[in-house]
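#struct-help
A.M.: can someone run this one for me? Single chain, 264 residues.
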Amino acid sequence: MQAVSLPALAGWRWVRDGWTLFRKQPMAFFSWAMFVSLILMVASITPPIGPLLFVVLMPTATLLSLSAARNAEQGQKILLGTWIAPLRLAGVFRRLLGMGALYVVFCLILGLLAFLPFSEEVTEALKSVTTNNDLLPLLEAVRIPMAIFAVLYVLMAAIFWYAPALVGWHSIPMTRALFYSGIACWRNKWAFGVYGLSWLAIFLTIDMTLSALSMLGLPKSLSATLQVPINVVASSVLYCSFYTSFISVFNSAQDSEPEPIPVE
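D.P.: on it. Structure tokens below:
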């Protein structure tokens, strides 16, 4: 098994192939995306435990999404029991939970690194919010630390991107999986740049289209109602594209002789 270095346009192909894969079993993927969205909504209204649990379970959800996509590609019907099948292998769920816990720790450390140097400015801005009921100073105070956190988060996300599949499917130790995931993402950084911009453009297009329809007379309530299933479909394709990205990077032989990354 080896990871390959792909051209930038591979990022768009991942999106396109994700759509093709979604169309094989759209209701199964739609239901999964809806379930994840509901869990995220519940987590968002039950802080701090809800968000922490959601982040801890992210590697598990990623592996379940990838496994379902692999089954769909192989022509297998995705039934209810299919979703949890990857977790029945000995030790997989425990390792994924450990990875999720490490993800939480990394997020907290990155947050400290980004916000600690600006703690005085943020504190003063918070005082302004409480005394003057003015959010503008707070928004200005957190602008730079949020930008720093975003950059650090992207680097961290690369380390964890492929790790759940490497741990769950290939029994690679977590530390090695994180290392190989980071290397694979770095070698395909331009493809991931196109991939990220493509999804940003897709979600912005959805939002702008529905906003334009509202301006043309579509009731806002109907526009908001339509946006939910459309976003869920887009999220379903996004989850499918995780799988097309993985098999493209780790299983494809390219015409140009790519430098391999040994992972076994």
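A.M.: thanks! The chain has one domain: 10-251.
D.P.: also worth noting: The CA atoms of residues 28 and 78 lie 7 Å apart.
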